[in-house]
Amino acid sequence: MKNRLRVLRAEKNWTQAQLAEIVGVSRQAIIAVENGKYDPALPLAFKLARAFGKNVEEVFVWEVDPLQDGSL
Amino acid sequence: MFKLPRPKMNGRNSVQPVGTLLSVLCVATAIDIGAGWLLGRPGFGSHARIIFALLPIPANLALVAVIVRRIRKLDEFLRHVHLEAVAIAFLLTGLAVFVYGYLQKAQAVRPLNVGIVWIFMAVFYGIGYVIAVRYYR
Prior knowledge:
Chain A is mostly helical. Chain A has helices at 5-12, 16-23, 27-34, 42-51, 56-59, and strands at residues 2-3, 60-61. Helices cover 53% and strands 6% of the residues of chain A.
């Protein structure tokens, strides 16, 4: 799953620590999500999206549509 | 912009204060050492020796409770990291004990002191934690 976290954070001029503070997680969590190493659970994904005033789909992008590739 | 609830934790306090953990750890270790020392001394009856052997249980249970509380305060990502560390420690400790058991059967090593297993777990947990942190960095 790809995400636009780094771009959105840069637009807001927030540091990773500031974003971590806003959504209530550790900075390591933000680093891991930004680097695509960790896909957050729904509550954190929603919090991250809300922090930027976006919907989840505007922040997180499923690379392959699960409805089209037959996995669902 | 959407209003988010006040954060429960942040980057700075994501690692909770370790004061309580260290205090309980010190007390538990002191009782462990004390119990071991008492058990090594002659002159006690079998009932007393059983009591000495069970003496460390309450403090060690308190240590477990403190650790569980700390884990529950971690965010989902840090829980994920610690879960991997625990899984790696579990598997490597099992492997180490397995290998040691065969070496013991081959009479290449002395019988295993069960106290050493805890050290295996702690070391492998540290290794697992480093592996998980490096992977997600």
